[in-house]
Amino acid sequence: MPVALITGASRGLGRATARALADRGWSLVVDARGESDLTDAVRELPDVVAVAGDIASPGHRADLAAAVSRFGPLDLLVNNASSLGPSPLAPLRAYDLGALRHVYETNVIAPLALIQLLAEPLGEASGAIINVSSDAAVEAYQGWGGYGSSKAALDQITNVLTAEESGLRCYAFDPDDMRTDMHQRAFPGEDISDRPEPESVVPVLLRLIDERPPSGRYQAADLTIPSPAEVTS
User: How far apart are CA 209 and CA 213, in angstroms?
Assistant: First the structure.
């Protein structure tokens, strides 16, 4: 059975992706900060190892790598866990630098650290890395300077990995707006019920996983995966 590690799997896109892959028979290692939420999220899933903790902690990342080692080669790493930063969103001139450091530790340093730890099992499986991005990485939105710049950095890490890791598929995946707890924190007190549920994005993400197009940045709303003939022509 293929093996995936999904971070931030207790809610939102991470939880929806874990459920979809479990339905396909994948073995999973999943994490989230909240132990009770994570336990609830995977309660009915078969063949899953849940490791609660903060992805910004080196010790927790080591625990995840140890859990992966029980399975062997790693087919897929989904770096989904993210920190929004302060809520309400703060303009850059007033952004607390301690909070910004934590955003970067979670959204940039932690995903790269996991990639470094798991490079060997990923290479054994000719695996794929999906770094969950955002339109805030490429667009300038007021208040989104901390989160957006961290996702821009993650996009560039994905770009360089593409150049350096020819044996892996490396994707920056922008799922577009979704109805998630994080998105609600970005707009406190506002009605975000018009945003689609994370489950609506999963079919596009599964297509990315199944078809393994060339490494690069893909946006859910306009994802176009070239056919094999287009890739080789």
Answer: 9
Question: Which listed residue (27, 151, 215, 218) is catalytic?
Answer: 151
Joined together, the tokens standing for residue 14 give 């991470």
Cα 63 from Cα 77, distance rounded (Å): 15
* Listed residue (7, 183, 227) closest to 112, CA to CA: 7
Strand ranges in the chain using DSSP code E only, listed in sequence order = 3-6, 27-32, 48-52, 76-79, 128-132, 169-174, 216-219
Q: Is 69 a catalytic residue?
A: no
Pair 199, 16: CB distance under 8 Å? yes
* Structure tokens belonging to residue 149: 């710049």
Whether 133 is a known active-site residue: answer: yes
Give me the domains of the chain, ranges plus CATH numbers.
Answer: 3-232 (3.40.50.720)
Encode pLDDT of 2-17 as tens digits.
Answer: 999 999 999 999 999 9
pLDDT tens-place string over residues 47-76: 999 999 999 999 999 999 999 999 999 999
Q: Which two tokens stand for residue 24?
A: 């396909």
Active-site residue among 27, 83, 147, 218?
A: 147
pTM: 0.91
Cα–Cα distance list, 217 to 3, 85, 98, 141, 174 (Å): 23, 23, 29, 20, 8
126 is catalytic: no
Q: Please identify which of the residues 27, 82, 83, 134 carries the catalytic annotation.
A: 134
Is 134 tagged catalytic? yes
